[in-house]
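Reopening this one. Same input as before:
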Amino acid sequence: MRARALGGVVFDAAAVIAFANRANYAQAVTWATVSAGNTIVVPSTVLAAARAHIPADRRDVLGVLLGLPHTVIPAFDRATAERLGVDIVGNPAAEALIAAGHATREAVTRDWPCLTSRPKKLRQIDPRVIIDPLP
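Same output, byte for byte:
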C-alpha cells in the first residue's frame, strides 16, 4: 500500500483577506483543500499583513481559517529571515516584500501552489513559485 502524498496550498496576504471577505474563489480553495485532507499554510508574516486589512466584523471569518485542523502558521524565525534576506537582497522595496517573500519561500520549499493576486511580485522573488491566481 502506498502512502498518500501530502499536499496543500500556501496563502499570501491577498488570499487571507479574500477568505475573510468571503470571496468565492478563496472560499472554494479553502474548502476543497480541507475536503481533500490537505494543508493550508498561512505564514506568520502573511497573517500579520492580512490582519491589518481585515475589519473587525470579519475577524470571526479569519478565525475560522486559522482554526481549521490542517491550517499551519509557520513562524518567521532567524533561519527563515536569513534565507528570505538572500531572496530579496538588493531589492529597494525589501521591507515591503517580507510577507510576500515568506509566502513564496513556503510555497517553493513545499512545492505547493501559492494563492495570490500578485503572481508577478511572487515570481520576481522566486520564479519557481507555483501560482494559483485569485480572480
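So the earlier flakiness isn't reproducible anymore. For the record, The longest strand covers residues 8-11.
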